[in-house]
Amino acid sequence: FTAYSEEPDKIPSKTDIKNWVAHKTITEAEGKTYLERLGYADHEIYLYMIDWTGSEERYAEWIERMREIAAGLGV
User: Fold this and answer.
1) What is the extent of the structural domain holding 24?
2) Does 1 reside within a domain?
3) By the 8 A CB rule, do 31 and 21 touch?
């Protein structure tokens, strides 16, 4: 039963990595390393990092835009 004695290395899921990067639990470099280990191509990793690291800024822009629209409607 030696085949069962060694557990394969487990790595976090893409969702875990996304949350950790977004909440700054891990660095972007660490997130990239995890995605590489999951088998993602460099271009895909680049796109994920842009999406995940820019999300707070885009959310703040969206909130501001919604406020402008609401103000224009007299709400």
Assistant:
1) 10-72
2) no
3) yes
Residue 6 banded pLDDT, cuts 50, 70, 90: low
> Is residue 42 in a domain?
yes
What stretches of 1-75 show up as alpha helix (H) in DSSP? 2-5, 14-22, 28-37, 42-53, 55-72
CA distance 44 to 58: 20
Question: Cα(first)–Cα(last) distance of the chain, in Å?
Answer: 69
Q: Give me the number of domains the chain comprises.
A: 1
Question: Is residue 3, in this structure, part of any structural domain at all?
Answer: no
Please report whether residue 19 resides in a domain: yes
Q: Taking the complete model, does pTM exceed 0.85, yes or no? A: no
The pLDDT tens digits of the residues spanning 13-48 come to 999 999 999 888 999 999 999 999 999 999 999 889
